Fold:
Amino acid sequence: MNSRKLSRSVLPILAGGALLLALTAAWAEDKKDKASKAPPKGAVVLFDGKDLSGWTARGDKPAGWKIEDGYMEVKGGDILTKEKFGPDFRLHVEFWLPLMKDAKGQGRSNSGVYLQGRYEIQVLDSYENDTYANGSVGALYGIIAPNKEAQQKAVKPPEQWNSYDITFRSPRVDDKGKVTEKGRLTVVLNGVTLIDDGTFDHVTGGALDNKLDQPGPLLLQDHGCKVRYRNIWLQPLSRKLGKDIK
Ligand code: MG
Structure:
């Protein structure tokens, strides 16, 4: 057998074997990933991959996002949970960003996770895509910029699943609405801390209302990009626990 014939017959087998190995590894990684992100005791599962029964669109209309293979995909406006949460909680949410190679800055796979429907944790493709710091992935939009070095370590190229683990304590206000204690926020992207106990005292653009300390829903933003979400759970924190756990 000459070398050309050999490469024709052997190479496809080798390539097939390599592909099989890669697929097996990816499957094992995905399984491990899912297993490690199981909701803790006492957590409220907000999306289990099956339906949007716990969600509505703005204006109390039915939520119209697409459901497929255990995830939901942005379609037809923002959606929010029927249930309200707060003042303190921990949130886990996973998101997947489409490749939008011709889009730049804020146009590139933009979405957002609004805590209490008021405080947007930015979702954006910040892999080789520059924008203003407090508008990049992991930012409390327009208010707190993530640590840039940590962010660039944490970001993945598009078309992969990412995770946010967010610890949130809403600001406290007095009878006149004056902030007596600032809100506190820790944002972890793919296991890397981007905001470490940052403070804030006002809502971000697009908030449902301005009631800083009142319970509110989780809202996911439709910014015109086909971003996907899965495995969303929230664990209410007691005041004491909130102080003990960042
Ligand atoms: Mg956004």
User: Anything to note?
Assistant: The mean pLDDT is 90.
